[in-house]
């Protein structure tokens, strides 16, 4: 399986019941992303009660759009090849709407016994909404 991600998307695989994060979240405050943004003339700000943002606006360091911030962002995805074998049960693909609320292993545990993808998505959505 090939996984490519950008921004706040994340892929988590369930392997023998254990969650394994396959991708890196592209958040502006991480060392590599902050250095890249600053090298390109941008800045990362953190206001009390808020998340780090590129030039005080965008909460991801990599994105396709956002024309006004294009000079400071990257649209280069991280790409990874992941061998699939019989120990891999499923993959959860989601954005920070899920991952800021639910930990990787918690998400895997919530849906491990569900076989229908739509029912899985509904279960994760219900859990996020219940926790907000």
Automatic annotation (TrEMBL):
<dbReference type="InterPro" id="IPR001932">
    <property type="entry name" value="PPM-type_phosphatase-like_dom"/>
</dbReference>
<dbReference type="InterPro" id="IPR036457">
    <property type="entry name" value="PPM-type-like_dom_sf"/>
</dbReference>
<keyword id="KW-0378">Hydrolase</keyword>
<feature type="domain" description="PPM-type phosphatase">
    <location>
        <begin position="1"/>
        <end position="132"/>
    </location>
</feature>
<keyword id="KW-0904">Protein phosphatase</keyword>
<dbReference type="Pfam" id="PF00481">
    <property type="entry name" value="PP2C"/>
</dbReference>
<dbReference type="GO" id="GO:0004722">
    <property type="term" value="F:protein serine/threonine phosphatase activity"/>
</dbReference>
<dbReference type="InterPro" id="IPR015655">
    <property type="entry name" value="PP2C"/>
</dbReference>
<protein>
    <recommendedName>
        <fullName>protein-serine/threonine phosphatase</fullName>
        <ecNumber>3.1.3.16</ecNumber>
    </recommendedName>
</protein>
